[in-house]
Specification:
The complex is a heterodimer. By secondary structure, chain A is mainly beta. Chain A is about 0% helix and about 45% strand. The chains are: A mainly beta, B alpha/beta.
Chain lengths: ~100, ~375
């Protein structure tokens, strides 16, 4: 095969534990069109236990408050819908870590 | 590379222009700049615009504005770098003239934010964030700024009122600027009580989206001397970028692109930051101003907000002298060109009530995203 066609970005698969710590957060009052039905919602930057950071919503918060340093865990949720009759987009959100039994 | 100068400037009022389209605003700024430079033609036009496609369903703005302004069949195209599009157009025009490929370049910034309103404007603006890792989770630019601001307050033990001096200064300067969008003053103590947009970012913290267009004409410095009485030299021009997603930065409280682009521009101009007489910073949020002053080296990490008593028109380090994004308004893709026009007026001594006395050199910095793109220019008198 020609070398010019062989270029690729190599990815290594890595499974995260899905647990992390809140680096910072905010409540979005002025949402984009595809998120108005969820508004207001809590958005956070989360430092995963393996070190990398990501941005995601905090869900299942109810009346509880959130603070920098809170422990959180990943859950799969609906993120948004591509228009009224469009595809439902699923992805990751985080919730405050539930008590562990073991 | 030959030295380049600004020989003409023009700008429209910033605000909500319900009766004008983006092409009309752009052409108006072009006509004002041509009149200022006593020219009737240029060789090329470079236009900064961020959201024409999502706000106005219109791309291809270079040709559109060149034609509508009556510039004929010249070279023309638009440049996009998020909210730093205006600065990127200035950089492109600078490179074209410095290289010798173009002699007279028109650099325009034009934006029509009011073509989209409410949540559709927020959605339209979100295209400059990381779609797969930020926007899909409902992130917005104010939300990202808010998270950085909250973390800053947490790490350095600062409360919200510490940032109020930046907004008070912007509005004090904007009040004197007849072209500014919001010419009201903000009284001490009012800032921390304003309603939240995305806490802790509130209405008195984030800059308003606006309509507007600005233009500067660039020419080789050698020719400029014979044509106009006060050419303003572009002494340095530097661009740096950072990760699109804020969460991918090793230290989200350090604006690396701000530091690097300024270092490049200052090095080229042969100046230190102490030799700069005033700054036009990208004050879209007070936390951006704070972190920019720290990254530029004017303050230590965690101490940028303490400079608020030095930034007035008569202070040691005047910033946002015509009101900045906060009070003059943020016509996104045009903002970087507004900064160039305002700095030129300061250096010519034509800033009227906004004049910084004895201003000889300026550093102007236009940011895209949360300093994902940083574009710095050093302007100076001859």
């Amino acid at each position: 095969m020609n070398e010019m066609t062989q270029a690729e970005i190599r990815h290594e698969r890595f499974a995260f534990s899905g647990t992390g710590t809140v680096y910072s957060y905010t409540t979005v009052q002025d949402a984009p069109e595809s998120f108005t039905e969820q508004s207001p919602y809590v958005l956070a930057m989360i430092q995963l236990d393996e070190g990398v950071m990501l941005t995601a919503q905090i869900t299942d918060l109810g009346d509880e408050s959130l603070a920098i340093g809170d422990r959180v865990e990943m859950v799969t949720r609906k993120l948004t819908t591509e228009g009224a009759k469009g595809m439902i987009v699923y992805g990751y959100k985080f919730r405050k870590m539930l008590p562990r039994t073991e | 590379m030959r030295p380049v100068a600004i020989i003409g400037v023009g700008m429209t009022p910033v605000g909500e222009h319900w009766d004008k389209s983006v092409r009309m605003l752009g052409a108006e700024a072009v006509q004002l700049a041509l009149a200022d430079a006593h020219l009737d033609a240029v060789d090329a036009l470079y236009l900064g615009n961020s959201y024409g496609t999502t706000f106005s369903s219109q791309s291809h703005l270079g040709a559109l504005v060149a034609d509508y302004a009556g510039l004929g069949n010249i070279e023309a195209y638009a440049i996009e770098a998020g909210d730093a599009s205006g600065g990127a157009a200035l950089r492109t025009g600078y490179l074209a003239v410095a290289s010798g490929a173009v002699n007279f370049a028109m650099v325009v910034g034009a934006e029509k934010s009011s073509d989209a309103i409410g949540s559709s404007r927020v959605e339209g603006r979100n295209v400059s964030l990381d779609a797969d890792f930020e926007s899909i989770h409902g992130a917005t630019l104010p939300a990202l700024a808010a998270m950085i601001m909250r973390r800053y307050m947490y790490e350095y033990g600062v409360d919200l009122s510490a940032f109020e001096g930046f907004s008070i200064n912007a509005h004090a300067n904007g009040k004197r600027n007849p072209l500014a969008m919001y010419r009201n003053i903000i009284k001490a103590g009012a800032f921390a009580k304003a309603p939240f947009v995305s806490d802790p970012v509130n209405l008195f913290d984030g800059a308003p989206d606006a309509d507007g267009a600005a233009a500067v004409i660039l020419a080789p410095l050698e020719w400029a001397m014979d044509r106009v009485s006060q050419p303003i030299k572009i002494g340095g021009s530097g661009v740096s970028t950072d990760t699109l997603a804020v969460h991918d930065r090793k230290d989200p409280l350090y604006l690396k692109a701000v530091a690097l682009s300024a270092q490049k521009a200052l090095l080229q101009a042969g100046k230190t930051r102490e030799e700069i007489d005033f700054l036009e910073l990208h004050d879209a949020f007070t936390i951006l101003t704070t972190l920019s002053l720290e990254a530029l080296g004017y303050a230590d990490r965690g101490a940028g907000y303490r400079l608020t008593d030095k930034i007035g028109l008569t202070g040691e380090l005047p910033i946002c002298t015509f009101g900045g994004l906060k009070s003059r308004g943020n016509p996104t893709g045009a903002t970087g060109v507004y900064q160039a026009v305002e700095a030129t007026l300061q250096l010519r001594g034509q800033a009227n009530e906004n004049q910084v006395s004895n201003a000889k050199s300026a550093l102007i910095q236009n940011l895209g995203g949360l300093a994902t793109t940083a574009i710095t220019h050093v302007l100076e008198t001859i």
